[in-house]
Amino acid sequence: MASASASSSRAWRIAENGRATALVVQLRQRVYVLPWSLFLYAEGTDAEVKAQFHTHVVLVQGAGLSSLLSDVAGQFVSQVVEPDRTAKFTQTTGPQLTAVSVSENK
Fold it and tell me: What's phi and psi for 80, nearest 5 deg?
């Protein structure tokens, strides 16, 4: 499992002092604050991570996301920011986010 120490190679923020109390998902038009106490499970691949909360589903797409899945499992992630539309055309090293979405459970 990935360490929760701060790392510039991550495309998301993690809590500096252990577990985060909530996940802040910042989209271009809206911000969601989902408490980790409502977290149910996560699943994914290196290209996509889905985090299921009691009320919402957070879907993150990109590359190199296996460490995001580890950080979500440990509830270390404090913030995920939706990238600009041009992010999928940018060449970077390490994990990269290309899309972030939130949907309500119905």
Answer: -130, 130
